[in-house]
Amino acid sequence: MTSTVVIDKAAPTRAARYGSMSRDRTWALRWSYFFLTLFAIFSLVPPLYMLITSLKSSAEISAATNPWWVFHPTLENYVGLLTSNQFLTFFRNSALVSILVVTITMLISVPAAFALARMRFWGSATLATGVFLTYLIPDSLLFLPLFKMFAVFGDLTGIQLINKWYVLVIVYPTLTVPFCTWIMIGYFASIPKELDEAAIIDGASWFQTLTRIFIPVALPGLIAATIFAFTVSWAQFLYPLVFTTATDQLVLPVGIITTLIKGDVFNWGQIMTGALLGAAPPLIIYAFLMDYYIAGLTAGATKG
Amino acid sequence: MLMADVTLRKVIKRYDDVEAVRGIDLDIADHEFVVLVGPSGCGKSTTLRMIAGLEDITDGDIMIGGDVVNDVPPKDRDIAMVFQNYALYPHMTVAENMSFGLRLKRYPKAEIKTRIDEAARMLDIAELVDRKPKQLSGGQRQRVAMGRAIVRNPKVFLFDEPLSNLDAKLRVQMRIEIKKVHQKVRTTTVYVTHDQVEAMTLADRVVVMNHGRIEQIGTPNELYHNPATRFVAGFIGSPAMNFVPCRLEDVAGKLHIRLTDRVAFPLPADRAARYQGIPRNEKLLLGLRPEHIAEAKAHPEPGVEAFDSVLDVTEPMGMETFVYFTLEGAQICGRVSPNAGARDGSPFRLAVDLNNMHLLNEVTGAVL
Q1: Do B231 and B267 belong to one domain?
Q2: Which residue from A10, A186, A295, B21 has the fewest beta carbons nearer than 10 Å?
Q3: How many other CB atoms are there within 10 angstroms of residue A11's CB atom?
């Protein structure tokens, strides 16, 4: 699916007269470009620095040369990481956790949002607010009780979840489900009531109304929620740091800093390479889905 | 063919503390086109939605084809509904929109195609079947929404203000279209609108509702010529009926109707007989439609009484001219010929046709 660029053919063809209106606009544009450029530089310098450093050998990094230039470009960091079983294990763990978390999140929050937005039952409004409030509790407050819960669970049942990568599949949805449910409630609520009434009269069950009307119509929202869930589980640092310690159970963000920093020796080249490689999947997903996302947003999904 | 009459028995709808519908009895015959009309908040849409099954009924019974459907879910009531904002599925093509219900019921593909083709031809949208709703104009969307109802071949069509999102010209056109469709398919239809012109032009019978109750049920002509209450008299017809406070008076043994100290008219014989029993001091209202207040003629028919007025405003409509004047503080509208020479602010001799008058009780609003 591609987005369509609408070219305004009605744009003025005569020479523009510079009245006060257009002068205001010119200045507004200049200022926005100025700040946008500033912001772009601000946010692009770190990845650029990462890229530059990742192309240097350890010797060049520690040498007193211009840090913004690569004199002897090398791919040894990339080769080193991509052939290291450890790094590939981190990558695999991260991917598995993220994919499972996104799946679980969507399977829970889409039906939950549909129920809360449409199936007016006793207390549904309170419940919807409650769902959002749970999201406001910071994870730095939650990890201790959560850890305790898993420890007690392990003592009672003998099933040790702590220090297994899949414990994260259970923990992350506590962050993703409330927020995704909240987003989807908003999207579902924007769908006109008559649409599900028409579906009900056409003979659709609640489930068919959800799968055949609501999900396709709210697809942009669904994608936004998916992106959010993926980003959260891919970049989460605190929970994996707390819940997993064995090297083969680590996910990427924790794995990179725990294995590539040995004592006070920072393997900067590989750290930067690992961070860059780790940032790639979300970047690719954004780039691919953003197009679709915007196309969906501009399609005028509801009444127009 | 199954009988598809709709019957409402003492139907009540109560929201937490508001009674939206206060006991409605209504019999809609098979093939009949019935229009529920009334001001906003009169309970007409709620009534329709209760027939559709989109709202539970608090009390009473609703029957479709003789079966009580109080607890039957909408999909099993064999109805189709057309909504005000069309409610087309935005991600489906016209054909998919129309066939959605049939596909859910797992009709054979060939059958679905035949029905869509037939409905699309009837509604003149055959060339649009592969488009998405957003590529259609308002009128086209409304046709698709009707097509979606037609292909289901239901017992009852329900229309919820289907034309109020269209511009005036298109509304007239679609009104005719709906009437044509009903003449072809003859499906029992319940149609809700706040527009009395729509109600009058479409309906076999009109149901006028107000404050959750039925004011009157009748054919368009019955409602127009024999309204039962002040509300119906004022609601049906445009411009609205004039109401002038008045009382009855006996002058020289003949029954007169006195409007002001200076204006009183003798009643025609049949009217005098009809109103003879009313106490003379009762507070009454004279109801007269604008077309029964016209320019005075040289040789008036019996029952037509002339009087002098000073026109406030005139509204030339081309075919006719509406004239407005004040009588005892009430603004009155009359309808004169465009050639009668009515001018803003000028004195003008008008005549009232008392053969078509209505006399109402000012307190109860009942037409006497």
Answers
A1: no
A2: A10
A3: 6
| Per-residue tokens: A164 | 């297994």
B52 and B127 in a single domain? The answer is: yes
Judgement on whether residues B91 and B108 belong to the same structural domain of the protein: yes
State whether A200 and B101 contact (CB < 8 Å): no
- B206 has pLDDT over 90: yes
In chain A, residues 144-203 whose CB comes closer than 8 Å to chain B: 192, 194-195, 197-203
Residues B198 and B297 in one domain: no
pLDDT at A25: 86
Average pLDDT over residues B40-62: 92
B75 CA: distance to closest CA in chain A (Å): 4
B87–A192: do the CB atoms touch at under 8 Å? yes
Contact A202 B87 (CB under 8 A): no
CB-based contact, B255 to chain A, within 8 Å: no
Task: Measure Cα distances from A241 to A84, A167, A177, A196, B146 in Å.
Answer: 21, 12, 21, 45, 60
Q: What is the DSSP string of B67-105?
A: EE-TTS-GGGS-EEEE-TT----TTS-HHHHHHHHHHHT
The confidence score (pLDDT) of residue A2 equals 42
Whether A303 and B83 lie within 8 Å, measured CB to CB: no
Same-domain pairing of B230 and B260: no
Q: What is the pLDDT of residue A181?
A: 92
Domain termination residue (choose one: B183, B212, B235) = B235
Q: How far apart are CA A106 and CA A103, in angstroms?
A: 5
| One domain, residues B306 and B276 | yes
| CATH number of B300's domain | 2.40.50.140
Average pLDDT of chain B? 91
Q: Nearest chain A Cα to B106, which residue?
A: A203
Confidence of residue A15 (pLDDT cuts 50, 70, 90): low
Domain boundary pick from B175, B201, B235 = B235
Q: Which residues of B touch A198 (CB under 8 A)?
A: 81, 83, 87-89, 148
Structural domain range at position B284: 242-361
pLDDT in tens, A123-156: 888 888 888 888 888 888 888 999 999 999 999 9
Report, as an integer, the average pLDDT of A284-304: 62
Q: A21-79, pLDDT tens digit by residue?
A: 677 888 899 999 999 999 999 999 999 999 999 998 888 888 878 888 888 888 888 99
Domain annotation covers residue B148? yes
- With a cut of 60, say whether residue A4 has pLDDT above it: no
Q: Which residues pair with B55 in a beta bridge?
A: none
CB B344 within 8 A of CB B322: no
- Percentage of the residues of chain A whose pLDDT score is greater than 90: 37
User: Quick one: B217 and B116 in the same domain?
Assistant: yes
Is residue B114 situated within a structural domain? yes
As for the ipTM of the complex, it is: 0.83
CATH 3.40.50.300 is right for the domain spanning A76-298: no
Token pair belonging to B29? 């015959």
Distance from CA of B102 to the nearest CA of A (A): 8
Phi, psi of B221 (to 5 degrees): -70, -40
Q: How far B74 CA lies from chain A's nearest CA (Å)? A: 5
- Report the distance separating Cα A14 and Cα A24, nearest Å: 20
In a domain, B1, yes or no: no
Cα distance from N-terminal residue to C-terminal residue, chain B: 43
CATH code for position B89: 3.40.50.300
Assigned token pair, A179: 């927020």
Same domain, B311 and B194: no
Number of domains composing chain B: 2
Model confidence over A182-233: pLDDT tens digits? 889 988 988 888 998 999 999 999 999 999 999 998 888 888 888 889 988 9
Q: Do B75 and A213 touch (CB under 8 A)?
A: no
**Is residue B368 in a domain?**
no
